[in-house]
Specification:
13 strands; ten-stranded mixed sheet; 39% strand; three-stranded antiparallel sheet; alpha+beta
């Protein structure tokens, strides 16, 4: 369904030593109000994940930055923390400031429970997902027919679960109804529309 990619933070992120001498990833943290983010996504007739992906793609694709970076995700209480880390700290995620659900921003270390959410390789934006979890049973003989949902409320980050076609279609047809979930497209490339423009978003499993 999707390719599996390896993410090497030493090539994609900035490291600095903390007060205890530990070498840790550091970046620009953006905090969003979860409920406000859900409302904004609903107004755009989409889900939270698609809303954030679309805003990021719209900011990066027209004038693609050359420096790669990772965006890390962490949900905490009623907020979502997205941390952008690039080797030379050139990317601050300025597009996030324009989003109505944005609460605050600052420079900090990536939280130990944060997980990769998206990666920019200097040419394209890829939404990265942990490999799927299954509630029961074995994978189908034809894994290409399997459908997946992303549960943004998972711990420590978004969780991918295999579902039947009916459930997948219900979420996919009306993403604003359940903004905490996302129906993953079957193909590894997805077209995102913002106004009159379209942008390509890639999907991949990460390890």
């Amino acid at each position: 369904m999707y390719p599996t990619i390896g993410l090497d933070p030493t090539e994609l992120c900035r490291f600095e030593r903390d007060m205890e001498g530990r070498n840790r990833i550091v970046g620009q943290v953006h905090v969003f109000d979860w409920r406000a983010l859900a409302r904004a996504a609903g107004e755009a007739e989409t889900g939270i994940d698609q809303h954030l992906c679309a805003a990021t793609a719209a900011a990066l694709v027209p004038r693609p930055p050359k420096t790669p970076f990772i965006i890390f995700w962490r949900a905490a209480a009623d907020h979502v923390h997205l941390t952008i880390s690039s080797p030379n700290t050139s990317q601050q995620g300025s597009w996030f400031f324009a989003m109505g659900a944005h609460v605050e921003s600052g420079r900090d270390y990536v939280h130990p429970h944060a997980v990769p959410w998206a990666v920019w390789d200097g040419r394209a934006l890829t939404r990265v997902h942990r490999e799927p979890e299954r509630d029961f049973g074995d994978p189908p003989e034809d894994a290409g027919d399997e459908r997946y949902l992303v549960d943004l409320g998972g711990y420590p980050g978004p969780v991918v679960v295999a579902v039947d076609g009916e459930r997948w279609e219900a979420v996919g047809c009306d993403p604003a109804a359940e903004p905490d979930y996302r129906a993953l497209p079957a193909a590894p490339e997805e077209r995102l529309r913002i106004g009159a423009r379209e942008y390509t978003l890639r999907h991949a499993w990460w390890r």
